[in-house]
Amino acid sequence: MVDSQQNKGYRVISMFDRLMDGQGINKKQEAFTHQVGEKTIQRDLDQIRAYIEKAKLNCHLEYVRAEKVYKLTNIAENILSKEQVLAIVKILIESRAFLKSEMSEIIDKLISIVAADKQELIHNIILNEKHLYVDLNHRKSLLQVIWNLSEAIQKKKTIQIDYLSEGETIPVVKIVKPLAVIFSEYYFYLIAYDSKLEKDLPIVYRVDRIQHLLELDKKFKIPYAERFQEGEFRKRIQFMHAGELMHIKFIFNGSSPQAVLDRLPTAKILSNKDGHYLFEAEVFGRGIKMWLLSQGANIEVIEPIELREEMIETIHSMQQNYRYI
């Protein structure tokens, strides 16, 4: 068989793809498959090795004597493992962040990273979850909007958004300074400062409620020391309800104080008396009230007194709902 350039090109690409998938290349088997000599396969492997070194792919081609195959080593740093891909896919499905069609495409592309002989296994593991995936009620594709917002944030460009609040029928035009895009509990959120307000307080907008987005020519500046930090914001906000920074203290007598520390990353245990833990934490806004109420009798708010009184009033209102059965 004549080793034409076309045949050689296909052969080399085929071997390179399989090597990148983590598969091994047996020189004798490869020669038989392509009807060429083993010396030809060796030259192909030498070319692949030279390309890897020139492209600085952070891996190298080695002969594994025990398996009698050539393999790429040290590629774990650049390629997700099957375990990592499966975990990411599970998180994505649970998030319900995208339309079903978008989610399916993303999952398939992630699984394609894994070695070919493991792809079907992962597909089978998540088959039922993928099939039963349900879109959120807004049923909007947000990928392009998220990208546009992120670009405006990087360029520090003021934007104009037409924002439709829940329960409203007419969107309101807002001029804002975009700071960050955050995902939390099913939804993407834009964190921004309102250009019309004198005091810079982070305001939360649900991205799916943005009806129209326009990047304006006007840039904004925020001193480096006052820059918005998504990580610090996340630690202090619950259920994406923004507002003033607030210091709270509460007693927790539930079975898992660790769950409190995980839910409130700024929380600290001040004392523990017979399973009654005194916590303090720093939070933004009133979203914390939703979490505190969800803990039922396991929580008693101590400070601030305004929040304690608000909790008492809410609990009284809840009792009124159950007066008659």
UniProtKB/TrEMBL annotation:
Residues 148-213 form the WYL domain. Pfam families: WCX (PF25583), WYL (PF13280). It comes from the Bacteria. Residues 259-318 form the WCX domain. Coiled coil: none annotated. Signal peptide: none annotated. InterPro entries: CBASS_pafABC_assoc_protein, WCX_dom, WYL_dom. This is WYL domain-containing protein. It comes from Lysinibacillus pakistanensis.
